[in-house]
Amino acid sequence: MKTLEIKQNPPSRKGKDWRSRITPLLFIGPHLFFFIIFLAYPTLNGLYISFHDWNFFTDMKFAGLQNYANILWNSDSLYYDYFWSAFRATLVFVVLSVPFLVIIPLLLAIAINTRPPGHNFFRALFYAPSLFSVVTVVLIWIWLLDTNAGLINYYLGQLGLDNIPWLTRTPWVWISLVIMTIWWTIGTNMILFLAALGEIPDHLYEAAKIDGANKLQQFFHVTLPGLRGPMAFVLIITTLASFNVMAQPQLATGGGPGYETRVLILYIYEVGFTGGNPRAGLAAAMSVILGLILLAISIIQFKIMTKEK
């Protein structure tokens, strides 16, 4: 008795190719959608606006490179003076804040990584402020640093000392802005360093001990080389974040005293969105220039930090 054999046709190659092509798109599709809508399109649209004179209420007028000229080389323009004044204020904040925002989290991470008693509590304690909104952080520090009613000046008065104008005079305004920023953000960098420290093999430290290296020598010859990649990442994102500072000076000092703490993002916001005649094209040009500066700084930092000895 013969058995009937049913032959099944194998799936066509064409069907396999179609599925293999569509599957990756399904995975990257959501990210690609948000990337185009919230990053690519705004970037290209901002670049387009930067070549126009526009105040949101009238039609765009093509201005060519005039907006860039008023910022970069037309010294007779007020925007030239104000832009570079704001850039200098931003640079001051970056120089004052970035070293502390890298060194302090690194030292905290090294200390917590030794797992002292209560290390989980301290890890949570230092990370907790990063969960607050910037408005909450600034309001807390205004309450502490207010010249006349601040808690810190109250206790200074109890000690017979004069009030310190934390938010109204230089250099105290810079000290105040840096302190509140450090308190707010060191937790994130600390967690990044803790994760990186966990990836350094223990046998490297054991070998260093056998060779007679003390704790300081282990730090410079084992820990720091092992953190080269993460250190470059932390330094770059911290520098970018510091260059983009806005809310702290806006809420705490209003850009004062005078224009001393009017940083670049705050000035771009004022040019583009405030006043009776906002200059969106000019603000867009300033944003493009700032973006190029940050790109150049990031590339230089990355090259220096990842350069092989």
Keyphrases for this structure?
transmembrane; 13 helices; MetI-like fold; mainly alpha; cell membrane; 309 residues; two-stranded antiparallel sheet
Quick structural gist:
This protein has 309 residues and is an all-alpha fold. 69% of the residues lie in helices and 1% in strands. The chain has one domain: MetI-like (MetI-like fold).
Q: How is this structure best described in words?
A:
By secondary structure, this protein is mainly α. It has one domain: MetI-like fold, CATH 1.10.3720. 69% of the residues lie in helices and 1% in strands. It has 13 helices and two strands. The protein has helices at 13-49, 66-72, 78-113, 119-127, 134-145, 151-158, 172-197, 202-210, 215-226, 228-243, 247-252, 264-273, 280-305; strands at 52-53, 61-62. It has a two-stranded antiparallel ribbon. Strand 1 (52-53) and strand 2 (61-62) form a beta hairpin. Helix 3 packs antiparallel against helix 10, helix 10 (228-243) runs antiparallel to helix 13 and helix 12 (264-273) runs antiparallel to helix 13 (280-305). The mean pLDDT is 88.
